[in-house]
Design a protein that fits this description.
By secondary structure, the protein is mainly α. The chain has four domains: 140 residues, 3-Layer(aba) Sandwich (Rossmann fold), CATH 3.40.50; 148 residues, HUPs (Rossmann fold), CATH 3.40.50; 51 residues, Orthogonal Bundle (Helicase, Ruva Protein, domain 3); 92 residues, Arc Repressor Mutant, subunit A (Orthogonal Bundle). 48% of the residues lie in helices and 11% in strands. The chain is built from 18 helices and twelve strands. It has a three-stranded parallel beta sheet, covered by helices on one side. Strand 2, helix 2 and strand 3 form a beta-alpha-beta unit. Helix 12 crosses helix 18 and helix 16 crosses helix 18. Bound molecules: glutamic acid (GLU). The site of glutamic acid has 7 residues, from loops.
């Protein structure tokens, strides 16, 4: 087999979303699995809708996902000469012809055809006129009138298309720009693409593209059409389903390894394995295990996979990832050792980096803000002697989880108060809230000085009530 070469050819008319990212991932994995090459190409011939901003954001999203390309990025807008050359060849060989039908005439014919119950394709008016190129003329492919073209799809199997269903489609518009069908074939051919892996919304374009390869006397690449992604309600995935762009997931605190892991399972499976490292994905990915039915987007599963990868990431590494989120929340970034210890305690509970940053807040602020309801319920006058006693005892105790627990248990017995009756007010004093990581780990991480200061402040609060 020729060395594998795949491509990802986004149109820079929007940000990279889950569907596009999955297509890129499958192409990238297939190339990596076979030791091949992955090409990035921007299909930017639509000058009206293409924007540099989207080129940049798509590149950024691919890089963030770790889907580095080996070749490119190519820009179709810089390859117009190549398309012109191929168009000339097809015209000179009689494989394509110029057509002078005006858009108004075509529209008129289209309406008549629809009204008469015929299919509205081009009727071949200029097919045998032998028109030379000229202003206002488009170049059309001469599609055989009879027979079929069979797409041997690597996922769907053989799919036959009757030529009567395919009209003489346009290759070059009257302004000289190539259509998608034409540019994509010239590019895939000249770039030596061996496998085209894309969404099955492109399946109906494939017979046209195969006819073009034939007209050019070239062997078409292998095609693999991946079933689309649906929202939880069974309609095509969109923003309505809460699906975000890839960079928006990054900004919400998702990890690239989680998104990759989630995306690889959207339409591909390997037994019942859910968690894949990058190395495993590369080793195991193939097209035979791509599902034939549509995949369903499940935001809860994505969140659960993110939580998994958060826990699986070494804390010092995660600490670096969480820093930008602390800054965004206006929190001070502490020294690394303290951050790592604090993060260790919230890591089992956080599902995103943003959640982790929010949970870290009480460790980092100078003064915690009491949740009013929690303060009302737990920072009560009865706690004054307990807190006073604690302040005295804590000055001398070792700050380990075990020693702290011993101290609290002893106190609870001595004062005849349930442990919870002491622990909960202390939790509010230290974190401002009734929910936090385990109290003794919180105290150990905060350290004696912070704990004593926060208990003193709670005492002042109680006395002022
Ligand atoms: N630019 C096309 C798209 O974004 C590429 C389709 C293809 O892979 O051929 O849908």
């Amino acid at each position: 087999m020729k060395s594998v070469k795949t491509r990802f050819p986004p149109s820079p008319t929007g940000h990279l979303h889950l569907g596009g990212a999955r297509t890129a991932l499958f192409n990238w994995l297939f190339a990596r699995h076979h030791g091949g090459t992955f090409v990035l190409r921007f299909e930017d011939t639509d000058r009206e809708r293409s924007r540099q901003e989207y080129v940049d954001s798509i590149r950024e999203a691919l890089e963030w996902l770790g889907l580095y390309w080996d070749e490119g990025p190519y820009f179709q807008s810089e390859r117009l000469e190549v398309y012109r050359e191929y168009a000339r060849r097809l015209y000179e060989e009689g494989k394509a012809y110029y057509c002078e039908c005006s858009p108004e005439e075509l529209e008129q014919k289209r309406r008549e055809a629809l009204a008469a119950g015929r299919k509205p394709g081009y009727d071949g008016t200029c097919r045998d006129k032998n028109l030379p190129p000229g202003p206002g003329r488009v170049l059309r492919l001469r599609v055989p009138e009879t027979g079929t073209t069979v797409v041997e799809d690597l996922i769907r199997g053989a799919v036959a298309f009757d030529h009567r269903e395919i009209d003489d489609f346009i290759l070059v518009r009257s302004d000289g720009t190539p259509t998608y069908q034409f540019a994509v074939v010239v590019d895939d051919l000249t770039m030596g693409i061996t496998h085209v892996i894309r969404g099955d919304d492109h399946l109906s374009n494939t017979p046209k593209q195969i006819l073009l390869y034939e007209a050019l006397g070239a062997e078409p690449p292998h095609f693999a059409h991946v079933p689309m992604i649906l929202g939880p309600d069974g309609t095509r995935l969109s923003k309505r389903h809460g699906a975000l762009s890839i960079l928006a997931y990054r900004d919400e605190g998702y990890l690239p390894q989680a998104l990759r892991n989630y995306l690889v399972r959207l339409g591909w499976s390997y037994g019942d394995q859910e968690i894949f490292t990058l190395e495993e994905m590369i080793a195991k990915f193939d097209l035979t295990r791509v599902n034939k039915s549509a995949a369903r987007f499940d935001p809860d599963k994505l969140l659960a996979i993110n939580a998994h990868w958060l826990r699986a990431t070494p804390t010092p590494e995660l600490a670096e990832e969480v820093k930008p989120f602390l800054v965004r929340l206006g929190l001070p970034v502490p020294e690394k050792a303290y951050l790592v210890e604090a993060l260790e305690t919230v890591k089992p509970r956080a599902r995103t980096l943003l959640e982790a940053a929010e949970m870290l807040a009480f460790y980092l602020v100078e003064e915690v803000t009491y949740d009013p309801k929690a303060a009302e319920k737990f920072l009560t006058p009865e706690m004054e002697p307990v807190f006073e006693r604690l302040v005295r005892e804590l000055a001398g105790v070792e700050f380990s989880d075990e020693a702290l627990e011993r101290l609290f248990r002893g106190l609870s017995e001595e004062l005849g108060l349930k442990l919870k009756k002491i622990a909960q007010p202390v939790r509010v004093a230290l974190t401002g809230k009734t929910v936090s990581p385990g109290l003794f780990e919180v105290m150990r991480v905060l350290g004696r000085e912070r704990v004593l200061r926060r208990l003193q402040r709670a005492l002042e609060f109680i006395r002022k009530r």
